[in-house]
Specification:
Number of helices: 4
Number of domains: 1
Strand content: 35-45%
CATH superfamily: CheA-289, Domain 4
Oligomer: single chain
Protein name: CheW-like domain-containing protein
Domain CheW-like: 24-169
Helix content: 10-25%
InterPro entries: CheW-like_dom_sf (IPR036061), CheW-lke_dom (IPR002545)
Distance between the termini: 73 Å
Strand order of the largest sheet: 8-1-2-11-10-9
Organism: Coleofasciculus chthonoplastes PCC 7420
Structural class: alpha+beta
Largest sheet: 6 strands, mixed
Order of helices and strands: HEEEEEHEEEEHEEH
Pfam families: CheW (PF01584)
Length: 177
């Protein structure tokens, strides 16, 4: 069997164009209601298939067993939309496990498969402070507009440091009960 070897010349413009580096960041992107949300890959500990979540159901917080650890699970869907998802299924879905700066793990349940997406820096924009103060998405610091075949999709980029007050507030609620 013959092996075909091709050599590219350093001045080959096609090669230079195909190797153009576009600065980008990697995100785990997921849907929640009618929103597309994302977390920086560096803040995601792991994504696991649906795991049972144990909770009284009173404050939309639960706990899940992840190996030999317990993970506090926060229902962000309820936090954003003030209602539970229409389809509350005990099977299916995923748990996105996020690690905060102190090493604590928090889970965010999602129904659809999260995707790994590389988003160009040129597509990322800062959200206005006035919007962040007025909307339940105060945990999003930036937004990305990503062109698709027919129309662009808007992805809100969640900031783990902004999520922490929600997790802490919930922790305070659960400790005072």
């Amino acid at each position: 069997m013959a092996t075909l070897v091709t050599q590219f010349q350093p001045n080959d413009t096609d090669l230079a164009q195909s190797r153009q580096v576009i600065p980008s960041l990697k995100f785990i992107v997921f849907s929640m209601g009618n929103l597309h949300l994302a977390l920086r890959i560096e803040s995601v500990y792991k994504v696991v298939d649906h795991t049972p979540i144990y909770s009284s159901g009173l404050n939309h917080v639960g706990v899940a067993h992840l190996g030999d650890r317990e993970v506090t699970v926060v229902d962000l869907y309820w936090r954003f939309f003030k209602q539970s998802p229409i389809q509350e299924s005990s099977t299916g879905g995923y748990l996105i496990v996020v690690r905060n700066t102190t090493g604590d793990l928090y889970g965010i349940p999602v129904t659809d498969t999260p995707m790994l997406m590389e988003i160009p820096l040129s597509a990322i924009r800062l959200l206005p402070e006035s919007y962040r103060r007025a909307d339940t998405l105060e945990v999003a610091s930036h937004v990305a507009v990503i062109p698709q075949d027919k129309e662009s999709i808007t992805v809100f980029l969640l900031d783990v440091d902004l999520l922490m007050p929600i997790f802490q507030e919930i922790g305070i609620l659960t400790h005072n009960v």
